[in-house]
Amino acid sequence: MTHPENTPPILLVALGGNALIKKGQEGTALQQLDNLKVTLRQIARLSERYRIIITHGNGPQVGNLLLQQECCDAVPKMPLEILVAQTQGQIGYMIESTLDSELMAQNLTTRPLVSLISYVVVDEHDPAFKTPTKPIGPIYTKKQAEKGAWPFQKTARGYRRVTFSPKPITIVEKREIKQLINMGFIVICCGGGGIPVIREGRAFSGIEAVIDKDLASARLAMEVGADLFVIATDVKGVAINFGKHNQKMLRKLTRKDAQNYLKAHHFPEGSMKPKVEAALQFSSIPGKKAVIAFLEDIEKAVAGNAGTEFID
Amino acid sequence: MTHPENTPPILLVALGGNALIKKGQEGTALQQLDNLKVTLRQIARLSERYRIIITHGNGPQVGNLLLQQECCDAVPKMPLEILVAQTQGQIGYMIESTLDSELMAQNLTTRPLVSLISYVVVDEHDPAFKTPTKPIGPIYTKKQAEKGAWPFQKTARGYRRVTFSPKPITIVEKREIKQLINMGFIVICCGGGGIPVIREGRAFSGIEAVIDKDLASARLAMEVGADLFVIATDVKGVAINFGKHNQKMLRKLTRKDAQNYLKAHHFPEGSMKPKVEAALQFSSIPGKKAVIAFLEDIEKAVAGNAGTEFID
Fold first, then answer.
1. What sign has the CA pseudo-torsion B218, B215, B56, A112?
2. Which of B83, B104, B117 to mutate to test the interface with A (most CBs of A within 10 A)?
3. Predicted ipTM?
4. Residue A94 placed within a domain
5. Per-residue pLDDT tens over the stretch B113-123
């Protein structure tokens, strides 16, 4: 029933953790709700011209839940995928209610809006399940790490629990999400990269892992046929020689250069690297545009006036 | 685009807490997922003949999150409505993934299925905000209660934190939920009675409270025009003289008798009483049917062969 010629393009915006908690903040509920306004005000305006999907990270939030359940022996500890589900509830509510308010303030209340639980299939034979690489949760001392029940890794800031970070294969709710955006719904989904599950025969089963939210967002963007993919983060775009005297921010980045910079380790693991990989995956489809941009520049980035745009 | 004459009736099933955690269980993730199967197998089968909405409680789960954050001073404590949002994520995922598996097992994979974050507007002038009445979370000693930052109440099992339990005014996502079921989606929503919010001018704002899940479900059932409302719980139906030698289970209950029994305090607060009130509210609409039934008897109750049916 859709009329392709009249249908607005699909914009998927992936929000980094700092859309909710800024550097140096403790991360109270009020801080998180307040920080979201600047981002969601822009997305409210963009909803007049685009079909919108919003995805988001959950790093600090899932870390807090992990820490809380470590403190407390009185209640059963939940596996990691359940904690991811809890953060989807928390952050989904925060984004939805803030966006609702911004839409009301702009008299745009006719757009239906939902925040969905999402789970994402991973492959249990993914080589990522051989070595845990993704740091999660709080900082531990060496002594605590040695007594801990999980693998730990020494990081610059201390010992951190590490878990598996498999590739996203498919977003289970892709068909529903596609149907919803085609009907004009704004959809919030794929929080924290999605709840990781494996298929076991005719059932899905949760698995201890964390999926990178930018890679999951790229996967979803491709599965629903998004036109434009914006990865919104706390820097103005992609830089080479990051943090060095010859740091250089790139406004346009050819896919070939991006691949070469990746090989030359220009982009930090777990930070800019998966964003560049996600942008590369999505922009490999002819006619599709990927941009990595500052959270406050989402509208400018959509207009082609900010961030790093991936080109052929 | 809907064809009323061909559209299946709308069934709203409200799942009690024991759909997830049975009496005496600790409530691990595996127990919760396993317990859900018997309920969701029935709902999967019913989805062939009904448009389906599933709502659910969150008592033990929100209590556990409260207890965890009390244990742990290292992370910012979240207000109650955020914890409710977290349980919507957790339980929404558990219900959705279990129902997905049951639908697959029955070759019913064409029905789209979503689990939504839901918030529910309450009135800040509701008299319920004068006195906290709803016990939540763990049991405390007298000493702990005296030192605590909230109101406490002495219950049969010890001291418990009490919070406000205002009436649900409207479910914010009602329009979206209605649209979704009309398109054949199975919708999981209104977890834990919904995240309580008040309207402040053009915005929604979370408020410290817990909404009764049966009353919120009745409200939603009325707002979306459900035809049949099943409140699924851990007893076979409504009984008078509950727990006494002359206890009598009722298969049919006239609305008038129900009102009289309510006045005569036959139904415990926070347990059967709000269920009877919710069933009365919904069944006040001509042609609408409300049933209170055992979790394992949902299909039978829908067929008119189990539970307590409210009649005129």
1. positive
2. B117
3. 0.94
4. yes
5. 999 999 999 99
